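Suppose a colleague, Dr. K., hands you the sequence of a protein chain of 180 amino acids and asks what its three-dimensional shape might be. Before reaching for any lab equipment, you can write down a predicted structure in token form. Begin with the sequence itself:
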Amino acid sequence: SLDKVLRLGSVAEQVSPEDWYSKCIVGMAYFWKEQYDMAQQKFEQAHTLNPDYPLVILNLGLVSYARGEYQAAVQHLSRVITLSASKKEKKWGDGEGEGEEEDYTSESIFLRGIAYAALGNWQNAVIDFEQAKTTFNISPLITQALNAYAKGQLYQARQLATKGYRCYIDNLARAYKLLE
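The predicted structure, expressed as tokens, is then:
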């Protein structure tokens, strides 16, 4: 359960206060509990300890979006894209720094497109969605949002993009077996 993750993460933080990974795990637990202020605090602590790790910054983008801070989400996700373009990161949580290379570029472009849509910046949202479509399995809701935008239905397009974000979050939770 998420409460167990929070308890174990708290112990890990006490044992090793400089462990950015524990802070990130605790931040994700708070995120899933929709305690976004606490999640942001933990992600910021992890970021201070490991400022160039793309997944930490991606998480800051997710929590910024969830808090309605869309411009901050765009900034964090743009930073992930820049970092990912310059280097590949080891798979998050592998413990030894070994494992598959993981690149967060496509995911960040997709999420940044959703943040742009929330800001009403459809020119950049469309660019990001079109770019993300080529390498990331985006929700059909985003295709519907693009179609609504093309028809001038901006309110409906924004609603569909927001639902696309929620679908992404739900799928992520399922992947981590948080929703059953």
